[in-house]
Model the fold of this input.
Amino acid sequence: MSERSWKSTLGEAIPAPLGEEIDAWEAQIELKKGPGMDDRIFAETRLRRGVYGQRYDNGLRDDGTGQKPLEFPCGDLKKGPDTVFDAPGMQRIKIPYGRITAEQLDVMSDLAEEYSDRILHVTTRQDIQLHFVHVEDTVDMHRRLAACGITTREACGNSVRNVTACQFAGVCNTESFDVTPYADALTQFLLGHPDVQDFGRKFKIAFSGCHGEPCGLVTFHDLGATAVLKDGKRGFQLVVGGGLGAVPVEAKILMDFCPEEELLPVSQAVCRVFARLGEKQSRARARIKFLIQKEGIERFRELVAEERAQLRDDPRWTDFLDTLHGPIENPIRDGGALPEAAPPRFHEWAKTNLRPQVQEGYFVATLTLPLGDISSEQGWLLADLARKYTGDSIRATVEQNLAFRWLSGADAVAFWEALDTMGLAQAGASTINDVTSCPGTDTCKLGISASRGLAGELRKHLTVIRDQLDPAVKPLRIKASGCFNSCGQHHVADLGFLGVSRNVGGRKVPHFNVVLGGQWTENAKSYGMVVGAVPSKNVPQAVELITAKFVADRQEDESFQAFIKRIGKGEVRKLLAPITKPPSYEEDPSYYSDWGDPREYTIGDLGIGECAGEVVPFVEFGIQAAEQQLDQAQDLHDVGEHGKAASQALRSMLTAAQALVRHLGHEVRDEADDIVTLFREHLHDTGLFHDPFAGGKFATYLLKAHAAGDEEFWTGADAEAAHRVIDEARLFVEATHAAYARIGETPQLTPPPAPKASAAAAPAE
Done:
C-alpha cells in the first residue's frame, strides 16, 4: 500500500451524508449475519452499494495471455458459496463521467492491492471494478473511497447508474460546449433523490458534446443529452428509451431543445414518470424503453410535460449555472509542440493514442488497456505520472481505456517513455486492436462464453499482424459480450460477438454469434444483427475472412457498414459456412474448451450413431429450420421487405416452439394457435422453457407476437419494428437451444419447477 495516499486519505474528512450511509451499511451487514434481514432486501441493499456476487466455477480471470493465475492472493475460493459471506464478490466503484484524480487512483490501487486480486478493471460505463472482494471488507473500502470524494451508492441495483460522458468533453474540437458540469450537476442531483428510489429496473444516462462523434453513445441510453447551441443559447437534445441488452432499441427524441436551466427538472420529471408507470412485476419488461413502447413517444412527452408542470421549484435546478463557465480543469505545465526528434515507436503510438485538444499545445493521451485492466502497481505509477504532467484530469473511457488530458506536446515523449517502463505504451487506441469485452465467464454469473478470453486472443493475433492490416481495416471496432445482456456493446461494433452455446455430439461447445452492421460513430447510430454462430475457437478466422472480403470487394471509400449492407448478410453466411461446424471431440477436443480455460466447456453423455452416421433427434432439425427462417427474415429486412421479414421472424419462433413441443411427445398441428397453446401449457406455464436467470423473458417474445394477431399483422411493419421482432426471434431460438439442452434427448414427463432469477446474478452495467 502507498503510505503517501494512506496518510492523505486519513487526513480527509468523510462527508457527513456519506459517512452516515456507510455506517448504515455496516449495520446491515451485521444484521444479515444473524436472522434479522430478509435475503431479498439485503440483496438489493448491497447492490445499491455496488457490491455484487460473482461467478466462481471458472476460477480466476484471464489475464489476457490465455492463462489464469494459479494462486489467489486474497483468500480461498469456494465453488457455489452458500451465502454472500462465504466467498468474495465484486465491488463496483462509481466514477461519474469517468473523471479520476491522482489521489483517487492511488486509493483505488491501494484497495485493489489489499482487498482484491490486485487488478483495477475499467468498465464500459466508465466505472472501476475490483473483483474477489469480501463483503465485510467493503465497509473500510467505502470509507476510504468517501474520504477522497467517491461514493459507491447506486453503482448497481434498480437505480440511476453511473452518468457517463465523452472523455474529450471540454477539450474537443467538434463539441458545442463542455458537458462535464452538466453531467456532474445531474449526477449530484439524482444521487439518493427520493424520486429515483422506486424504479423497477436500472436507469442509465449519458452526455455527448456533439452528434457526429461516438464518445457519448446517447442513442442506447434510458436518457441521453446531446449539447446543442440555439441562437447562442446552450441546451440539449434529449432522447429517451434507448437500450442494448437482449433486444436493442434506439432512443426516441423527447425534446429537440431543452434549455440548460430545464435539464435537471425535465430529467426529474422523466424519472418520476418511469417510477410511477414503469413495470414493477416483470423484470424482463421493467426498463423505460418498454414503457415508451407501451405509451408511444407522443403520449410519453405529454406525461413528462404534465409531471414537469407539477414539480415544486428546487434551487438545485439552476444553482450550478452560476459557476458554470469557469474552467473545469487547468493544465499544470506550459503547452508546446510535439518534438520532431523522437523514437519511431513513439510516432507509431502518437498516431493512434495522441489527440490534439482545442487548446493549442495540449493533447489527450489514451492508454490502451488490455481487457480494461491495470495492476495496483501500475495504478500508483500512473497517479504519480498524472501529478507530474497532467494533473487531476484522468478519465476512464467507454472503450475500457484511460485518457490523460492536458498533456503538453513538449512532455509527450517523456510521458510515453514512462508508460513504456510500465508496459502501457501499446499503440492502437480506438482501432481494431483495441478490443472491448465484458467479464464473460471469468466472473459473471450470466456468462455463456469467455468473452475476455476471446478478446485477449484477438488482441494478441491482431497486434502481431498490425503492420499487415489494410488501412480500411484498422479503424474497425471489435466488441464481445459473453451473453445477451450486451455489456460488451457488441450491437454497435463493426464486428460484434455474442456468446452462445451449442450441442455437438452430446457435448456443449462454446460459440459466438457474429453481429455485423453496427455503427459506432454518430453516438452509435445503428445496431447490428446476428448473421450466424461460429465455434469460439474459429472467431479469429471469422475476423480474417470478413475483413479480407471487405478489403477485396469494397467500392472506393465504402464504409464497412455500407459494404455489409450492399453484399447482404446472406453472402456473409456463405463466407462463414466452412467454419460454422466444429470438428468432433475425437478429431479436436480443443473446440470443447473455451479461450483461457483448459477444462472442457461441458461434458455430456456421448451418443454415437451406427452405420451411416449419428442419429440426430428430430427436434434438432426443427431448430435448424427455425434458424434458416431467421436467416431469410434478415435477408428480407436487408432489401426493405420489412413486413415480410417480421412475418418470417414470427414463423421461425413458431417452428422452434413446435419442434420443442413435439420433442416432449405432444401432438401439435401446424396452425399457429395450436403451437402457441401447447407451448404455453407444456413449456411456459411449467417453466421448462425458462432460462435460469432470465426467467420467462424469451418465451414472452413468442406469446406477445402471436397475441398481436398472426403473420398478417406484421405486413405493415416498419424497419424498426421488423428489426425488433427479428432480434426477439433470434433470442427465442437461442432459448430453444438452451431448453433442449436442459431437457436432454430423453424428455422428462414431469418437468422441474421453474427456476428463479437471482437479484444478484447479472452484473450488467
Notes: The chain has a mean pLDDT of 86.
